[in-house]
Amino acid sequence: MPQFTIETTYHLPVFRHSTYSACTPEAACRPSRTMTGPVREDYESSGESHVTGIWQGADAAYRGQANSVPPHFGAAVQRKAAQFELMLGLLKILVGDAKARRPTPPGWLGKAEWAIARGEAILEGARDPVEPGDAKDLP
């Protein structure tokens, strides 16, 4: 039976506490984004564990060609960000068609249906549905 070396990662938040004098909370936030000083690690708020690498063989990390990580084993926040970008693009196309009173090509509707199913899979922590063949050919 084949063996695989799997690398998993989790994001560990680090934080700083600083005090600022400002007229508004927004004004106080501006300099905080470039603050320096000692950081503290927040182990209790670490992110979920996710797969960042797969190699065929025992103890094979970074030796040879890495296999692609199936999307549902990746970081949920990155899946959600990619899905947001996809959904925004599709929504712009569909709204543009509606405003121009032109029919949306069937390929785009199929892509939208797939994107909805993919979004639901992301929320459930499930694997992505198979993308329809005609959707891959769209610009």
Overall description:
The protein has 4 helices and 5 strands. With 139 residues, it is α+β, with helices and mostly antiparallel strands. It has 2 domains: 66 residues, no CATH class; 61 residues. Strands 1-4-5 form a 3-stranded antiparallel sheet, with no helix packed on it. The protein has a two-stranded antiparallel sheet with strand order 2-3. Helix 2 packs antiparallel against helix 3. The two termini are 41 Å apart.
Produce a short descriptive summary.
The chain is an alpha+beta fold and 139 residues long. It is built from four helices and five strands.
**Order of the strands making up the biggest sheet:** 1-4-5
Name the beta content range: 5-15%
Q: Report Rg.
A: 22 Å
Question: How many domains, as an integer?
Answer: 2
> How far is it from the N-terminal to the C-terminal residue, by CA?
41 Å
Structural class: alpha+beta
Number of strands: 5
Write the layout of secondary structure elements.
Blueprint: E1 4-9, E2 14-15, H1 25-32, E3 40-41, E4 50-56, E5 66-67, H2 76-99, H3 106-124, H4 133-136
Structure characteristics:
single chain, 139 residues, alpha+beta, 4 helices, 5 strands, 40% helix, disordered C terminus
